[in-house]
Sequence to fold (308 residues):
Amino acid sequence: MKKILFFMAVVFSILFISCGKSAKKSSAIYQDLAYAEPQEAAVYNSGITMSSMRKATVNNEIADMDVAYEMEESVEVPAAGVERKLIKNGYVNLNVPSFDSIEMQVQNYAKLYGGYITNTYLSENNYSAEIKIPSVNFENAMNNVGTLGEVKNRSQNANDVTEEFYDLETRINTKKILKDKFENYLKQAASVKDLLDIERQLNNVVTELESMEGRMKRLSNQIDYSTININAVLPTGFVDTGYNWPDIKEDFRKMGVNIVQFFEGLLVIVVYLIIYGIPLIAICALLYWLLFGKIGLLVKLFKRISRK
Fold:
């Protein structure tokens, strides 16, 4: 009997120790998760660039999330060492003698500077095109746009997105570290509940990471490729086939049509006056005759009131 009781006590002791370790492990995971979320928000506001985090990751092979956050908060990139990120746009208005070859000229112009055409529009007296040019060639392309025609006016501007670029880069790097950490937690999950909770947070991180990477791709493309908008017109009085000589016969015909339309309008006014004006005048005359004329009903009424 004593042996049986001793055996049961040993079994219960082993089970109790195992449950304690499992609970401790699960609690540790939740503590890390609870710590990770507020720290992630703190990292977003730190203004640290991804280059500093990448350097720390490569040199030290960060495995612990807490250490990663502490490093991000302590590292600062000197302003002098930051490469400026600019989105450049140029606008050009041209006079061209003809539209026969303008599209081919613009294509060759774009290829000359390593760019390409994204949109074009052509009408009887107007041609426009949007060209993407590598930012390193933007200035040269704008300076030589006169090869396409006579430059009427041109302008350019640059939008500084340095802060936005490096902030987004930092967020992406932080999300990647957090994603790796959650994936490790997922392997260590001690229960179904832990597994589901970690998967939910991991999915949220992956969704946000994909969205940020998409924004970064679009922003990088705008930085790497500047935009030049070209608008070309023919000189005044010209069409695509040459000078537009005035058609005297057509001009006289239009003048005759305008004169006829004027007299038609005048005739309509006279008819309206006859139809509606004469009866209206007759009614007004009758009212005057009854109230103020020979009969003078209104006048007689005022006289009677005044006598009383």
Observations:
- The CA atoms of residues 132 and 227 lie 5 Å apart.
- Confidence is low (pLDDT under 50) at residues 18-78.
- The chain has nine helices and seven strands.
- The beta strands are 86-95, 116-122, 126-134, 150-160, 225-233, 238-239, 242-243.
